[in-house]
Amino acid sequence: MDHATLLSARARVLAxxxxxxxxxxxAVSALEDxxxxxxxxxxxxxxxIEYVAGLVAQDVQDALFETVGxxxxxxxxxxxxxxxxxxxxxxxxxxxxxxxxxxxxxxVAPLGGL
Length: 114
Description:
Layout: H1 3-19, H2 25-44, H3 52-67, E1 86-89, E2 98-101, E3 107-110
Antiparallel strand pairs: 1-2, 2-3
Helix pairs in contact: 1-2, 1-3, 2-3
């Protein structure tokens, strides 16, 4: 298994959590849970390693929705827009995942670049 790719995925998601001031113990715990699950997944499907970073981000996003709400929120649409999220594109999470505005469909940042 490619441990460097897994560690890079963790670092990228953690950077985005920190960028939005959400690197709380609960969020980091959700990240660690996602890393454990996706590490197992990558062992079962080694060719899927290129998808892990985006999938981990989606897993953390889903876990945080249950406890803190939407993450990450779109900050690009300005003050008048209703609160909405970003989502990972491509849908499967790779190979080059980016955050996309839910409302406009515009690419906001690469994963790890919020």
